[in-house]
Amino acid sequence: METTIKKSLANKLERLYGEQRALSVTSEVMELIQTYKHKQIEPEKKWVDEKDIMMITYGDSIKEEGEAPLKTLREFLSDHLTNEINAVHILPFYPYSSDDGFSVMDYRTINEELGSWDDIRALSHQSDLMFDAVINHISSKSKWFEEYLKGNEAYEDYFVEADPEADYSKVTRPRALPLLTKVETSNGEKHIWTTFSEDQIDLNYESDRVLLEVLDILLTYIEKGARFLRLDAIGFMWKKLGTTSIHLEETHLLVQVMRGVLEEAAPGTIVITETNVPHKDNISYFGNGSNEAHLVYQFPLPPLTLHSFQTGEASELTEWAKSLEPTTDSTTYFNFLASHDGIGVRPVEGILTPSEVQRMADKVQTNGGYVSYKDNGDGTKSPYELNINYLDAISTNGESNEKKAKRFIAAQSVLLSLMGVPGIYVHSLLGSQNDLDGVKETGRYRSINREKLTRSSLEEELQTEGSLRNLVFNDLKTLISIRKSTKAFHPNATQQVLEMDRRVLSVVRTNEQTGDRVVAIINVSDEIVPVQQETFDPYVKGNAYDLISDRVISSDITLSPYEVLWLRSSEVSS
Question: Which residues form the Glycosyl hydrolase family 13 catalytic domain (predicted)?
Answer without folding.
Answer: 52-483
